[in-house]
Amino acid sequence: MVTMRRSRTQQAKSRAGVTCKRVASLIADYLAGDLDAATTFAFERHLLECPDCVSFLNTYKKTIQAARSLRYEDIPAEMKKRTRQFLLRKIKDLP
Amino acid sequence: MAGIFSQARDQRTDQEERKLIQQVKVGDHEAFEGIFRRYVSRVYRQALRIMGNEADAEEVVQEVFLAVYKKAKTFRGQSAFSTWLFRLTVNTALTKLRRRKKGEEVPIDDYLPRFQEDGHHQVRPVIDWSEGIDDLLVKEELQEIIRQAIDQLPAVDKAVLVSDLDGVSNRQIGEALGLSVQAVKARLHRARLFLRGKLAVYLGHSPT
């Protein structure tokens, strides 16, 4: 009797031949458009069948977006003035 | 159309920069001030992102511009001045960062995803917390969590990540840090995964 129940390994691999671990390692290249057509196809097919990897991809993308949204203050005017004066003093002393 | 205009503007900027740097080479202080005015904000922001605090960023800015003046003669114009300046800034910041007394070590691996032997995620289901954090992002607290996480990265990984956030290409990052593009990509991916893990934990989920 052939069992219809496949092992978890078989299930994972059958998701278009790539595992969740492999998907996680390919995400950056996928987002950068650096994967070849066959790997992109396998990656996207895996996503169609794996909600965990969809969640992983979404949170990875959101992380990049969140880091890009960080606001950094411009150089304070007083520091800029101080640095300019420091540099002019220094370069005057140089031979 | 915009491309043509921006290309023309880039060429003009490049010519102006080359002229200024030629003048700096012969000790023209006004030309040096011109370069300082043009680039101080960019250098400061880069330094601040890597160093994580104003005082260290200020020192980096001082060292970078002093190096620009001293090393102007070695600038051969093979790359754009901005590329040369980026390299100087990143390496000055990295040197300083390595000298800084190390704080508490953060086990990076604790925040990276883990997988079972069969390749599945170790903790399932993976929670999609991407929806709904936009409101939190405008709040200082979450911004601070991300800043702290960036600060906890190893020095080179941090330099790679913040340069990427600044829109610097992997090739330029690699040239500045002496890394292959493949190595830059690997470090960038690991840094992003770490940040993702830190955000997940902050939001009450498993980092994996």
Brief synopsis:
Chain A has about 100 residues and is an all-alpha fold.
Protein model, in words:
- The complex is a heterodimer of chains A (95) and B (208).
- Chain A has 95 residues and is mainly α.
- Helix content of chain A is 72%, strand content 0%.
- Chain A is built from five helices and no strands.
- In chain A, helix 2 packs across helix 4 (51-68).
- The longest helix of chain A has 18 residues, at 51-68.
- Chain B is mainly alpha-helical and 208 residues long.
- Chain B has two domains: 2-99, RNA polymerase sigma factor, region 2, helix turn helix motif (Rna Polymerase Sigma Factor, Chain: A); 108-202, Winged helix-like DNA-binding domain superfamily/Winged helix DNA-binding domain (Arc Repressor Mutant, subunit A, Orthogonal Bundle).
- The longest helix of chain B is centred in the first third of the chain and has 24 residues, at 2-25.
- The radius of gyration of chain B is 20 Å and the shape is elongated.
- At the A-B interface, helix 1, helix 2, helix 4 and helix 5 of A face helix 2, helix 3, helix 6 and helix 9 of B.
Topology at a glance:
The complex is a heterodimer of chains A (95) and B (208).
Chain A: H1 8-14, H2 20-32, H3 37-49, H4 51-68, H5 77-93
Helix pairs in contact in A: 2-4, 3-4
Chain B: H1 2-25, H2 29-51, H3 54-71, H4 81-99, H5 134-137, H6 140-151, H7 155-165, H8 170-177, H9 181-202
Which architecture of the largest domain in chain B does the CATH hierarchy give at level 2?
Orthogonal Bundle
**Structural domains of chain B: how many:** 2
**Count of individual domains of chain A:** 1
**What general outline of chain A do the C-alpha atoms trace?**
elongated
The radius of gyration of chain A is 26 Å
